[in-house]
Amino acid sequence: CDKILQELDLELSAHNKNSELYSLNSDVGMMLGVDEHLLTTLGTAEKLRSLTGGAYDYTLGALTELWNVNGGGPVPSADDIQDALSHSGEDKFTIDGTTVKKSDSKAKIDLGGIGKGMTTQIILDYLATTDVQYAVVSLGGNIGVYGSKPEYGTYKIGVRDPDDESGIIGYMYITSGFISVSGDYERFFEVDGKRYHHILDPETGRPADSGVRSVAVHSSNGAAADALSTALFVLGVDKSMELYEKGGLDFEAVFVTTDGKIVTTPGITDDNFMLTSDKYELRK
Questions:
Q1: Residue 237: how many CA atoms within 13 Å on its side-chain side?
Q2: 228 vs 218: CA distance, rounded Å
Q3: What is the DSSP string of 96-163?
Q4: 226: part of which helix (H) or strand (E)?
Q5: Distance between CA atoms of 24 and 95, rounded to whole angstroms?
Q6: Which tens digit of pLDDT belongs to each residue from 233-259?
Q7: Could you give the angle at the alpha carbon of 114 between the alpha carbons of 158 and 58, nearest 5°?
Q8: Starting from the edge strand earliest in sequence, which strands make up the sheet with 261-264, in order?
Q9: Nearest CA among 202, 239, 182, 199 for reference residue 54
Q10: I need a labelling partner for 28 at 20 to 30 A (CA). Which of 39, 128, 205, 280 fits?
Q11: Whole-angstrom Cα distance, residue 43 to residue 83?
């Protein structure tokens, strides 16, 4: 598993200077012979961008770099935000076989919203070829479960309280699949008492302000769970429910809202989610 992680880091990391993605994000117009995992991830990312109406967008690399949330900012100007947005969009990258073409040399890919989910899925696929009977794989807010757990068969996954690093609002119970969580508490910086988090809205170019503090997504696909947790955070509860009802995407979700509510999709029931915190009100 560790070897797989190292190999994928050399393909999917935007920060590793030796990675394929880092090279693709440099000032080039085309990359030949792109590795299979990177191609698969990019193809999946494009499908999820389309299915979420752009709420998840892997082409926001220039914008992510501009905000520099991990480095503490600063808050960019409106003009700089618009300029960064002009270098994003579905038309900036084209996949042709094992070749990736860029129509804008300043366009950059950010796989932060799908890379760990895809990696978790690849590791579980590997475990299926071994004698390992059951396992939990956890990669920075992305969890995948493999095999049947002895005696109970159900995995109990805690959902963190956005206001308390060690607090749990409740537990999701799953027998298979992946859970991904996105929250405004994960990476952020503050200026004059205002929090600027890392989940950027592709429409505004600013940290998403959708009335959501965090969202936990359960899906049978690791990459989808990861990308959807980002997309649903950006969309907010109402638009996320519209996406759910529309179909085409297999997921269930638990939202923590800014007004202290817990909202769940219809498939979340007392059998697969238990609220343990009295700070929040559960609203179906």
A1: 18
A2: 9
A3: ETTEEEESSTT-----TTTHHHHHHHHHHHHHTTSS--EEEEEETTEEEEEEPPTTT--EEEEEEETT
A4: helix 222-246
A5: 12
A6: 999 999 999 999 999 899 999 999 999
A7: 140
A8: 134-139, 142-147, 177-183, 212-219, 252-257, 261-264, 281-283
A9: 202
A10: 205
A11: 26
Query: Is residue 160 scored above 90 in pLDDT?
Result: yes
- Pick the closest to residue 197 from 206, 261, 217 (CA basis): 206
Intra-chain end-to-end CA distance of the chain, in Å: 38
Average pLDDT over residues 152-180: 94
d(CA 111, CA 99): 18
Q: Which amino acid is at 159?
A: V
CA–CA–CA angle 163, 161, 276 (5° rounding): 135
Q: Which two tokens stand for residue 163?
A: 């206001």
Neighbouring residues of 3: CB distance < 8 A, sequence distance ≥ 6: none
**8 Å CB contact between 58 and 43:** no
In this prediction, residue 149 has a pLDDT band, given cuts at 50, 70 and 90, of confident
Residues 35, 37: Cα–Cα separation, whole Å: 6
How many CB atoms sit inside 10 A of residue 98's CB? Answer: 13
**DSSP bridge partners of 170:** 159, 275
Report yes or no: 48 and 228 within 8 Å, Cβ to Cβ.
Answer: yes
Euclidean distance between CA atoms 234 and 202, whole angstroms: 9
Q: In degrees, to the nearest 5, what angle opens at C-alpha 119 toward C-alphas 198 and 68?
A: 20
Backbone dihedral angles phi then psi of residue 143, each to the nearest 5 degrees: -125, 135
Q: Give the pLDDT band (50/70/90) at residue 284.
A: low
- What is the chain's mean pLDDT, rounded? 95
